[in-house]
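F.,

This is the one I mentioned.
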């Protein structure tokens, strides 16, 4: 009996020591990964700094405009009703006069067909053939249908046929024989519709991210900026828009990436990891207040913040300051200008 007890004790001690060793190895490997990512992050920041210094931005000449504009969220973190599906991704249907643009294509986290995007389009009575253009803001999976880093985007797990559609992407991408135009510089896409061109920024986990913003000139009102994630920062995006247009900034709709929360959540952890700063530093409330003050200073008339990458606390701050000028970004709820 005593020998059996001693054997069990020794065996238990051996297993415990083995587990401790495995844990130690895991922590060492994790620490090395974090160190390497951090070194790369600072190198990427230097690369971006040099790249941005070399960019010359010229103001658009003879800027034309559109008369009617609406934005219908198809993929977002919140929905209008239970018939529509939500995920932490982005896709908006933009109607600008007679032009229809699909801005980003969601996440399709479960890699299914039909995708959440297609399911919501069906429930919202949107025909895929209505789409004239696809505009990809940046190559993160929650905007490219779960792809992006592999040089493609998708509307669903299976190929979706797109007739006579042009896709405007921030870097080289492809999809099912769709005509793709890479937009790395400011460009007029069609009447009253422009790309700001890409603004690069180093992201701790994702590397150098190039993000473009859609800018639409609304007649007698000004420029409406439609933003994917706001990785370059709202300050840089507005600066770019002001360099390109004489017209005032009338609206700002989309992601600003402010995952500030008083409690830990999966969403806030992920959004802090894919941020243009060290994840353990996090975002400060003052950054949100400064962004709000900037938009007020620029006299922006319409504001809506995407819940896919910003917290409820952040959104409530914008709601409190902009009052009736604030627009909720919710799947199925159209924003008219």
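My design for it:
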């Amino acid at each position: 009996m005593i020998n059996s007890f001693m054997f069990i004790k020794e065996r238990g001690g051996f297993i415990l020591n083995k587990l401790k060793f495995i844990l130690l190895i895991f922590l060492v490997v994790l620490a090395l990964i974090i160190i390497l990512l951090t070194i790369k992050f600072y190198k990427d920041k230097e690369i971006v700094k040099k790249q941005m210094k070399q960019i010359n931005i010229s103001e658009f000449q003879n800027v034309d405009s559109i008369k009617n504009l609406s934005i219908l969220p198809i993929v977002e973190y919140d929905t209008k009703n239970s018939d529509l599906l939500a995920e932490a991704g982005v896709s908006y249907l933009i109607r600008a006069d007679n032009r229809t643009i699909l801005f980003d294509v969601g996440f399709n986290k479960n890699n299914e067909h039909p995708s959440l995007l297609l399911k919501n389009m069906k429930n919202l009575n949107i025909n895929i053939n209505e789409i004239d253009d696809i505009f990809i803001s940046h190559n993160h999976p929650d905007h490219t249908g779960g792809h992006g880093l592999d040089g493609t985007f998708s509307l669903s797990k299976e190929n979706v046929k797109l007739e006579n559609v042009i896709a405007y992407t921030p870097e080289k991408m492809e999809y099912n024989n769709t005509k793709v135009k890479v937009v790395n510089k400011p460009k007029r896409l069609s009447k009253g519709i422009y790309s700001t061109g890409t603004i690069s920024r180093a992201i701790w986990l994702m590397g150098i991210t190039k993000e473009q913003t859609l800018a639409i000139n609304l007649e007698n009102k000004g420029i409406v900026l439609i933003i994917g994630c706001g990785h370059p920062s709202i300050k840089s995006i507005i600066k770019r828009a002001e360099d390109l247009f004489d017209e005032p900034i009338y609206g700002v709709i989309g992601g600003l990436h402010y995952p500030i929360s008083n409690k830990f959540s999966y969403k806030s952890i992920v959004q802090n990891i894919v941020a243009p700063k060290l994840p353990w530093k996090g975002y400060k409330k003052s950054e949100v207040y400064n962004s709000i003050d900037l938009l007020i200073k620029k006299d922006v008339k319409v504001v809506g913040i995407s819940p896919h990458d910003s917290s409820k606390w952040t959104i409530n701050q914008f709601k409190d300051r902009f009052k009736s000028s604030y627009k909720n970004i919710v799947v199925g709820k159209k924003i008219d200008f």
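The two ends are 83 Å apart (CA to CA).

Talk soon.
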